Each structure stands twice: as structure tokens, then as C-alpha cells.
Amino acid sequence: MDFNLSKEHQMARQLFHDFAVKEVEPWAEETDELHRFPWEAVRKMQKYGFMGIPFPKEIGGQGCDTLTYILAVEEIAKICGTTAVILSAHTSLAADAIYINGTDEQKEKFLRPLVEGKKLGSFALTEPDAGTDAAGQQTKVISDGDEWLINGNKIFITNGEVADIYVAFGMTDKSSGVRGISAFIIEKETPGFSFGPCEKKMGIRGSSTCELVFDNCRIPKNNLLGREGKGFGIAMSTLDGGRIGIAAQALGLAEGALDKTIQYVKERKQFNSPIAKYQNTQFVLAQMKTEIEATRWLVYNACVKKDSGKPFATEAAMAKLKASQVASEVTRECVQLHGGYGYIQAFHVERMMRDAKVTEIYEGTSEVMKMVISGNLLK
Amino acid sequence: MNIIVCVKQVPDTTEVRIHPVKGTLIREGIPSIMNPDDKAGLEAALRLKDEMGAHVSVITMGPRQADEVLREALAMGADKAYLISDPEFSGSDTWATSSTIAAAITKLEYDLVITGRQAIDGDTAQVGPEIAEHLNIPHISYCEELKIDGDEVVVKRQFEDRYQILSVSMPALITALGELNEPRYMTPGGIFDAYREKEITLWTRPDIPIKDENIGLKGSPTRVAKTNPKLLKQPGTKIETGVDESVQFIMEKLKEKFIL
Predict the structure, then answer these.
(1) In chain B, where are the structural domains located?
(2) pTM, full prediction
(3) Which residues of A are catalytic?
């Protein structure tokens, strides 16, 4: 039992911290205010290998592990929730789905450019009538000669309009229920594949959240990911990994808001004294720090479990459940300690509070996390 | 081409606080970093490697934990790393330091040696040029731009109010200014390789071909006689009023101080 990060993990954390401060922070406010995709930061993340951290070098990745990738998401989320989720959706959902389920040929063609930072990935499961009930897929996929013909719509897709390679799900056999769902790899610019409107959101406003429209879209037969009818399992197991990424995003948001608040309460004076001198401030800070540290170990534990090859779905669900709750609570308390300044844009914590809320919703709501955890308890 | 880059681990002086009573640096809890000028020198070497192919070795002299800056250099893309570390070398002034590093460099093949201009903890700017003198090779200091032209290095040497363009035949040594470039980041995979695959060669006293009289405290002709803390300047007064009132205020202050 060793709760210390190894030297390489410590150095990686320092790298991610320095990068976030220098390359992400200058764009964070504008990203939120203008609902603008942070291309400057993302291009640099692509250049320095951040888009392929947990994947083997043989396929163009960095040859690190899940914990290192999670440290990147966490450090970036301390500064900008939007940039963190772009990294998380690309790595945990798109790239990992292909890494785990793809053929060698698919890995070479689709995974390599993703992890080498040449292309951006996205994962498309949600539909207007298939949210938590992901099995209710309406997108129809039929086999037509040496192609698949796809018709349907996907909504709320992270990296929607900006990605190049999409892992998407559809019904290849409506009569078989969840066993009729299959997974596919679809490239941007494929005829019949277009974008609907992008959403205006409460938080993570710079991430591209869009509708994907498939209107008689044809893709090659060998773009089927995994076996036909195995799509639901692929979606669920990929989301297990994605939840660790979102947990790290939530952890980072809480830590980032606390950092800003510690600085603020030392400077802000009321009744001739910094508000840090008041017991209410001290007790709130102490509680927040304790919650954050407890969360950290849940998140890191899920990483280590995943890399050890053991089942980690419950650990990932607990990490996401706790981290998203803590992110929402901590960012709200941080706004409160800032008083009126917390409510205005220039002090950043209101942005973090808005960014935090979605961590309780996407890649499985907190209620779904409880279903996963209790399902494992009661089986 | 073989390039040797000399780097130093220093306390991050942007994070250093001054003890309010003693006036000395509070070093506890201050992170250590690669000296910024040295990092620019390393980046220059790595760019030459990218452009024309080169083998880049990094050397540092210091305590064992100075291996961290070597790991960082490896994670940025350096090929080999050497740590000169032995209690017998401790207490070295610039003469003993440059003598020791130069003796170590004689064990390696090199066309170009790059050091930083100066370290942010000592600010002497002596070690680089002294290494060149010990090695009996030419040096150009304060390099703000450099390129390779055949067997020569062409350097823009920066002064406060002017610059020189100088060329020198290799083997040669140059000292790099922080302004030379914007150093690259490490990559996550580079960090893992630096710790898990690459090795740092440790050189202790017996590995360095140098006489005892030139090393450590006893090989150091200079001594720090006394250190005086520089008085910290008090923060100024900020006036935020209209132009007329500000002019009035400044005039009064100038008269008050008998400047007008």
C-alpha cells in the first residue's frame, strides 16, 4: 500500500500543471464567454502527446498509464473544465473504444492518428429518446452489399462538430433489443453524415456539443467495431472508463475552485481583517479540502484497478458519483465565500460552479452511478 | 554532431520568499527547477538535433537529487545524461566547478558545448567561459541566436545596447541567454522513458580525471566573505485620479522631496 505518486507521475503532474497555467489559462475565460472551442490549447495538447497518454507506443501512444492520463485531465480541469472534457471524451471514449475493440487494421487506420494527435475523436451514443435508457436506440443500420447504410440522429455529442473520427452506435437488428445494437467507426466528410445545431450550455460552454445527422450515410463493412450485435456491451464498458475521466474533471474543478478561494480569503478584508481569519471560513475550507482528498483516492484507485486488468466498473462509478457531488458542493461553497465577487465572471469560480454541474449528468447521471454500485452490492 | 549541454538545478527564485527578519532566502518548500538559461541552451541543442541530427548529452554537477533535471532533459529529448556527484566536490566555487565539469567533458566526444549564461541562484556567469578556458576551446557568451554553418557556429551575441554576429570554428562553447528560444515541454511518454528506460551515468570522484587541489572547497580560491541582504523596496503609492489632479500630486511630491 503506497499512497505516494511515483517520481514519473509527480513529474508528469508538474508538466500538466505548467502546461495548464501557460497554455490553457489564457483561453479559459474566452472559451466560456464566447462558447468557443479552445483550439490553441488543444493543438498544443496534440503536439505534446497529451491525446495518447495511456496507449502503447507501438500504436503511436505515449506508453504511460491511466493514472497519468487522469492526472492530465485533473490538472487541466483545475483551470478549464471545457478543455478537460475535450481530452477526456477523446481519450476515454473514442480512442479507448477502438483500442479495446478494434482490429489491428482499424487501430492502424483510426487509432494511430487519434493518439498521435493528428485527429480528434468523439463518441456518439445518446439520442433524443435514448439517454439513460441507451438500449432504446432508434438509429437504423442495415447491411447493403459491402457497406452499412445508416439513418438516424445523435444528440449532445461531445467534440461533435470538431472531431474527425466518431465511434457511433445503431440498431442492426431491431427485433433483438440490446443484442441488436452494433458499434461503428465513422469518419467526418462521409457523404450522408452532417451536423445539426450545436447546443448552448450552462457550463463547459467551449466544448462542441452537437447533433449528428445520418441521412443515408454509407460506410465500409469493415468499419464495424467489434462484432455485430455487441455494441451495447462496447458502449457500457467504454463508459466505465469514461467515468474515471469525468471523475478526474470533477476533482480538478473542485481543486481549482478551492485554490482560487484560498487566495481570495487571504486578501479579502471585512471588519478590518482578512476573512481567512474567521472561523466560518476556516471550517468551510477544512471541510472542502477533506472532501477533495477523499475523492482523490477514489479516483486514483479506479485508475489503478483499470490498469491491473481487474473489474473496475463499480470503482469508476463510485469515483464519478463522489467526485461530481464534491465538485458541485465545493464550487458552490467557493462562490459563497467569494460573496458578491463570486457571482461575477472575473473571479472564475462562478464558471467552475456552472462547469461542475454537468459532471453529475453526463456519461451516466449520479442516479445511474447508484444503480451500478447497488447492482454490484445486491447481485 | 555531438553536443554537450551543461545544466544546473536551482531553486525557483520566482517562488522564493525573503525571511522578514534575517533577510535570507527561505528555501524550505521551494521547488527546484532547471536553470532557465540552461533550458534555453538545451532547447537550442534539441532544435539542432531535430534539424540536422545530433547526439545531445546533458551534464550536471550537484547532489544526488539533481538527477531530476537530467530526467527532465531526457524527457525533453536529450540522448544521454551524466550526473557528477560526490561529497568531495561540495563547496566548489566557480573555478572548482568549471575545472571539475571540464575534466568530465574530456571523457566525452564533442563538437559543441552549450551552457546557460548564468544561474538564477548565483548569477556569476563565470562557469561557462571558464569551462571553455579549461578545455582550451574558443567560446562565445550571451548567445541570443545560433546556427550551424559547416564547421562553424554563427552566433548573435547580445549586449544591452547592441549585438555582434560572430562565428567560431568547432569545437567551441557558447553560453545561452533565456531569450534564445521558448523551450519545448516534456512529453508524458518522454517522462516515462526517462525514468523507466533511460539511465543516468553517475560519475563520482574517482571517475573524474582531475587533481585533488582543484576540487571542492579546498580547490576553491574564492570565499564568500559576507552576504548582505538587499533592502527590499517598499511598494509605491498608486494614484488613480484625473490628469490634472495627478499632475498636481506629483508636483507636490517633487517639491516635498526637494527635487523641484
Answers:
(1) 2-214
(2) 0.91
(3) 363
